[in-house]
Amino acid sequence: MCQFLQIARSTYYNESSPKSHCCANENLIISIFRKSRNNYGTRKIKIELAKKGLQLSRRKIGKIMKKYALVSKYTVKHFKVHKTTCNEEKTANLVARKFDQRPLLEVVVSDLTYVNVNGKWQYICILLDIFNREIIGYAAGKNKDATLVYKAFSTVKSNLAEIAIFHTDRGNEFKNKLIDELLSTFNIQRSLSKKGCPYDNAVAEATFKIIKTEFVFNETFSDLATLEYQLFDYVNWFNNDRIHGSLGYLSPVDYKHMMSA
Q1: 68-107 confidence digits (pLDDT tens)
Q2: Half-sphere exposure of 103 (CA within 13 A, CB side)
Q3: Bridge partners of residue 139, in order along the sequence
Q4: Distance of CA 244 to the CA centre of its chain
Q5: Whole-model pTM above 0.85?
Q6: Are the beta carbons of 143 and 112 closer than 8 angstroms?
Q7: CA 193, 195, 198, 204 torsion-angle sign
């Protein structure tokens, strides 16, 4: 037949066969994506599938995500707010970009970010232990000031005296008598990043990029009480369920348990 039609025999043998689809795999990928609060991309979904004994390539996962319009929040561009004034205090950078292999509560970093609450900018403050990237304290409020930082400290369940160093950028919200007295009371050393150098506070910068992308952006909270409730829910998920690449794809709580075992 091929000779009669004057076509190559390979044309017949290379005829494409219908591709099979596994609805179970697709449903599992959708489930993992939804449980990640629409945050995980192909890399982390692949890790979660491997935990369940299923091996799929990132390319295959990407095709399934595209098929069902599963778009991670990280693909969306976001508005950048203007920078505030700088703290010119002559305080040393005790951390010196040495973020790895730090003991529990040796270094706690902090930052604040803006949140859209019913069309108005309000703020959240996070305290992060760089040992296991766990959010140990947090607060939401109407003003970006030292009172909000102090409120975040009040939510820390650990003994504040166990914190050795409190490291931040040079935002003026961290320069206040209220904060100075708190640090002095619990004998916590102060550390500041170099002016205009985000790399000195890289762990906080990276974590707040996550928080902004996964929690803050694309959300409009009806009031402060709603923001506080959803922040509590997000922090609980972040600490107990969200896997982190820097922790060997464990959650902060699981990593802490592993290291203390």
Answers
A1: 888 888 776 555 554 545 555 668 889 988 888 899 999 9
A2: 5
A3: 125
A4: 8
A5: no
A6: no
A7: positive
